[in-house]
C-alpha cells in the first residue's frame, strides 16, 4: 500500500466525517493542475491535516493531491496495489476499527478496568480455597456444583435451577465442563467470570459511547470512567460471582446492537436507510438474542427492558413534532418481539423461567408497535406533539391493561415487583434494596459510594441528551437518554439497578471529561455538544483533530479533569471491594470448622454453621458445601444473640446446627450481660451447652459447638448460690469458665457445664469427663 493511501485510510478511520472533504478536494484537483486554499470548500483545520499527512503537497506556492488514485482507492475501500516500497502484500477490510493510537489508549483503559477489578485477588485465591466475595456468589456456587454432581447439562438443568437465573447457571456449567468439569475448575470459573464480564461490558461501553457521540475520545474516557465507577467495579471484581455482571453483558449487547440498528434505519440520509437489509437483519437478530438473554438470565430481567417503553413514547412524539415518520423504528420493534419469541421457544423446550417472564418482550413489542402506529396516524392527520403524547400514552396504557387482565400471572408479578421497588429503605438489611439516595448510605453522600462524583457530572449531559434528542428528533440520543433516565429512576428506588445505570452514566461522564477538557483549551468540544449542533450521523460533523500524541500541558489539563470527575471513584472502588472480602479471621474460622467437622465425621446438617446471615453462605460453603440459602440465619440469628435463654436456644438448634460463630457487633455492645451475645463473648459463661473451640488472636471472633453438657449435682445450704469454675484452653489460650446456679429449698443443685476438666465447686474439686459432656451424663460432686 502506498504511503498516501495509508495516510488517507488512517485519517478516515480517525475521522469518518472527513470523507466529504476528501471528495471535494479531489473534485477541485481534477479540474485544476494546482490550486490554492481558497479554491477548496473545507476548513483550515482539515486542510492542515491533509498537508501534514502528505495527502496534499505544495508545488510552486500552490497545492495538489499527492496521489489521486491512492486517495480515491482509500475512499472506495479498494485493495491497494503493491508497490516497490511494500515489504509484503497486504489485504485490507473496510472495518471501522480504532486507529493505532486510539487502539493503544483503549487497550490501556481496558487494562485499567481489569486492574481495578483485581484488587481482591489475594483475598480470593488463598492457600487451599478460592474464597468468593460477599454472600450471594456462594448461592451460584451451590447451583453450579449441584448441577455438576447430578451430571446435568445445558439442556437438562436441575429443577431448582430452572427458575431464577437459568442462563447464568447454564453458561457457567458449560464453561466449567469445557475446562474439565471438576470442583476446582468450577471455583476458578466463578472467580474469573465477573472480571471477564466487566471487561466485555467496558469494551461495549466504548462502542456505545462512540455510537452516541461519534467521538473516540469520549469512548476512551467512558471506559476510564466505568473503570472507577465503584458499583460496577465491585460487582465485576474477581470473586464476586453474582448474577449482576452477567446481566450487564446482555444489557450492553442489546443497547449497542439496538443503536447500530437505529443508525441504519432511523438516522442518516433517507436514501441510505434500509428497513430490510443484511445489516439490519443481522443487527435485529443480535438485539433479539440480547433481549431473550436478559429475561432468561434473571427473573427480574423484564425490568431491564423498561427503558424501551420510554424510548417508544419519546421517539413517537419527537418524530411527529419534527414531521417525520416513527415507523422507521419498526425493525427495532420486530427485533424486540423476536427476542420474546426466542425466549418462549427456550422456555417451551427447556422449561426455563416462568411463561409470564419470557413473554414480557412480546407484550413490550406489541405496546411499542401500537405507540408507533398511533404516532404515524397523528403525523398524517397533522396533530400536535402535545396531543400525540396523550394519544401515545393512552395507547400504551391500553396495551398494559389488556396484558394485566389477560395474563393474570403477569399482573401478579408486576404488582409484586412494583411493591418491592417502592418499598422504602432496605428489606431486612439487604443493602441492594435501599435507595441510591436513601438514609442507609446517607441522602447526600450515598451516591458517592456507588459512583464517586461521576454521576453528578453525567446527569446534566444525560438530561441534555434526552431533551436535545427529542427537540432535534435524534433517535440515538433519545435511546441513550431513555436508558440512562429509566435506570436512574430505578436506582432511586433500589440501588441494585445502579450497576445498569453505570453503563450509561459512564458514557455521559466521558462526554463531561472531554467537554470540560475542551473548556480548558486542551482539546476541542465533542461533536455531541458542538456549537453548530449538526447531526453527526446525517451531516458533516464538527471538525475534530486527530487522536494525536498530546503535549505535556494537554496531559496535565486532561489528567486534572479526569481526577475531578473520576478521582473519588478511583479511591472508593477498591475500598468498596475490600468491604466484600472475607476477613482473615473468618477464613481461619471456616477452615478450622471444616477440619473439625471432618475429624468428627459430621455430615450436613450436623456441620451447619449458625452465624450472621451475611456470612452464612461463605461458612457453610467451606464447611459443608450447603450454601443455597441464608434464610434460617437471617430469620433467627439476631433473636439468638439478644435472647437471655441459652437452654431454649440449645433445644431449637440441637440436631440442625454444629457450630455457632459470634463476632463483635457494635449494636450489641451495650446490651445486658444476660443475653447470648455477651455470654458467648465471655467464653460461654453462664451457659451449659456452648463450648468454645476456636477464637481469633484478639478474641473478637469465637466458634462454639453445641454439646449436651454434663450435669454436676450436689448439695449445699438451701437456696444458696454455687459456682462451678474451671480453666480451659481455646485456640492455645487459657480462659476462665464459670457457671452459677441456686440450690433449691432442700439444698440440692445441678449445674450443667460444656467443658471436660476439673471444676472447683463450693470448695470441692470435681472432674468432668469428655464422655459425660458429650452424652449429657450426671457427675456427682
UniProtKB/TrEMBL annotation:
GO cellular component terms listed in the entry, alphabetical order: plasma membrane
Domain Archaeal glycosylation protein B peripheral: 709-761
Tree of life domain: Archaea
The EC number(s) this enzyme carries: 2.4.99.21
Metabolic or biological pathway, per its Swiss-Prot or TrEMBL entry: Protein modification; protein glycosylation
Subcellular location(s) per record: Cell membrane
Pfam families: AglB_L1, STT3
Organism listed in the record: Halolamina pelagica
GO MF, one example: oligosaccharyl transferase activity
Major location category of this protein: membrane
Residue ranges constituting the Oligosaccharyl transferase STT3 N-terminal domain according to the UniProt record: 158-301
Keywords assigned: Glycosyltransferase, Magnesium, Manganese, Membrane, Metal-binding, Transferase, Transmembrane, Transmembrane helix
Reactions this protein catalyses: an archaeal dolichyl phosphooligosaccharide + [protein]-L-asparagine = an archaeal dolichyl phosphate + a glycoprotein with the oligosaccharide chain attached by N-beta-D-glycosyl linkage to a protein L-asparagine
Protein name: dolichyl-phosphooligosaccharide-protein glycotransferase
Ranges that cross the membrane: 102-125, 190-210, 217-233, 245-262, 274-297, 303-320, 332-350, 356-375, 387-407, 444-464, 476-495, 501-524, 554-572
Membrane topology: Multi-pass membrane protein
Family statement drawn from the similarity comment of this UniProt entry: Belongs to the STT3 family.
Cofactor(s) needed: Mn(2+); Mg(2+)
